[in-house]
Amino acid sequence: MARLFADISPLRHSPAFRRLWIGSTLSSLGSFLTRFAIPLQVYDLTRSPLAVGIIGVAEVVPSLTVGLWGGSLADNRDRRRLLVLTGSTSAVVSGALAAQAFAGSRLVWLLYALAAAQSGLSAISAPTRRTFIPNLLPPSQLAAGLALNRLSFQIMLTIGPALAGLIASVPALGLRTCYLIDAVSFTGSLYGAAGLPALPRQADVARTSLHAVVEGVRFIRRSQQLAGAFLTDLSATVFALPVALFPAINAERFGGNPLTLGLFTAAIGVGGLLTAICSGPLNHLQRQGRAMLLAVSVWGAAFAGFAVVPGLWPTLTLLAIAGAADTITVVLRGTIVQTVTPDHLRGRITAAEYVVGASGGQLGNLEAGALGSLTSPVISAFSGGLVTIAGAVVIGLALPRFTRYRHAPGVAPEPLSGPTAPAT
User: Fold this and answer.
1) pTM here?
2) What is the pLDDT of residue 114?
3) 210 exposed, middle or buried (CB, 10 Å; 0-12, 13-18, 19+)?
4) How large is the C-alpha radius of gyration of the chain?
5) Which residues are within 8 A (CB) of 341 and not within 5 positions of it... i.e. 6 or more apart?
6) Burial class (CB in 10 A: 0-12, 13-18, 19+), 372
7) Distance from CA of residue 73 to its chain's centroid?
8) Inter-residue contact 100 to 38 (CB < 8 Å)
9) What is d(CA 113, CA 110) in angstroms, rounded to the nearest whole number?
10) What does the angle CA 391 – CA 392 – CA 396 come to, to the nearest 5 degrees?
11) What residues contact 14, with CB distance under 8 A and at least 6 apart?
């Protein structure tokens, strides 16, 4: 039974990791309130799934442009100071979101601009935060630490949207309160960063430049393990993440109740939370590439079913299954990234991982919203799920080293050498 549940030994053995975990958990609660509030405010103002999907465009541009450059920045700057700076600036942006809501603004472009600013800051802070984990934990606890990070995410993914839906449904509170709580919650992020050790620039790391970014991209191209992990995640999020369709589907099936809309995302969180709690077996899983492909296929099938199943409870059940598959995918992807990547490239590769995870979801919102407007929300969600399953099959055949990738739990693999990645 002990092997079934999440391993909490990293929280006991590393005070710095424990502080980082607590601070990130508190901060992410506010972030989920804002993630709920912005799409709902845009939909309330426009009644257009496409307008909600355009939030993805506003967020993906800074994710792509700032993300990779931010990884280079994390490799040649003091990462702790970088976290403090980005956390403080993010609090200011959340304060601006609260101000426009209190003022009764109906400027959709302002919401897009603030969402873009928040996305650009997250593209620097999130991967920088992840680079600390291999420095705070021994290799034997790395997978457990990443699973605990996912557990924190899933707890907030479960609580955050449901709480946001409740707050939004109370006229005296509304979306403005969601934004305000987010601004205050960034004190948690600063608390976590304050207890971290300084990680100054290494002497052999190039200064922030296009060359440094290209070096990281070349490393990913040489490694089928990394390329496969990133492409698998992109396939899932671009084609089968119909969050932009949630307001429209909720309006069609359940009368547009904000509380029901919050349950959609909360159901994904519940499924992921249960998987994160029972993540012990992931620490001992060796065929991580094959497991990622299987989990992504389950994700696609769940969203295809979500598109056509009638009734609230079957809808929430399929969303919970999708959340469970997502947790498995993210933990395995993070473990592959952190074990295959040497420390002098960790900022750039971790930033690329963040760009894949964040921009894939944002592009997925755009794709789902656009297709939903041209056809229907049901057709968009259903077809995206089927395409994701087909994509997993193609990736598995095209990248055999990724499919056959084996990782011995608790053992850090040797770094890549030479012009190609080692066969595993």
Assistant:
1) 0.67
2) 94
3) exposed
4) 20
5) 219, 226, 349, 350
6) buried
7) 20
8) no
9) 5
10) 115
11) 136, 137
How far apart CA 387 and CA 238 sit, in angstroms, is 10
The full set of domains in the chain, from first to last, is: 9-198+207-403 (1.20.1250.20)
How far apart, in whole angstroms, are the C-alpha atoms of residue 185 and residue 191? 10
Q: Which two tokens stand for residue 142?
A: 């790395």
For residue 46, count CB atoms less than 10 angstroms from its CB and return exposed for 0-12, middle for 13-18, buried for 19 or more. Answer: middle
The two three-digit tokens of residue 136, written as one number: 């705070």
Residue 270 to residue 423: CA distance in whole angstroms: 37
Report the C-alpha gap between 357 and 92 in whole angstroms: 24
Check residue 200 and give its pLDDT: 58
**Count of C-beta atoms within a 10 Å radius of residue 99:** 15
Three-state secondary structure call for residue 129: helix
* Biggest distance spanned by C-alpha atoms of the chain: 63
Torsion sign across C-alpha atoms 45, 264, 6, 338: negative
The H-assigned helical ranges of 341-414 are 343-374, 377-398, 400-403
Q: What angle separates helix 224-239 from helix 288-308, to the nearest 10 degrees?
A: 10
User: Token pair of 319, please?
Assistant: 């969303």
Angstrom CA distances, 135 to 125, 132, 399, stand at: 17, 5, 30
pLDDT tens, 54-97? 887 888 788 777 776 777 777 777 778 888 888 899 999 999 99
CA distance 127 to 355: 9
Q: Which residues contact 143 (CB under 8 A, 6 or more apart)?
A: 282, 283, 331, 335, 409
Q: Could you tell me which of 305, 27, 6, 301 has the C-alpha nearest to residue 189?
A: 27
Terminal C-alpha separation, the chain: 31
Angstrom distance (rounded) from CA 179 to CA 35: 9
Interatomic CA distance for residues 216 and 262, integer angstroms: 38
Mean pLDDT of the residues in the chain: 82
The total of other beta-carbon atoms located within 10 Å of residue 220's CB is: 23
Query: Does the pLDDT at position 47 exceed 90?
Result: no
21 is written with which tokens? 């975990």
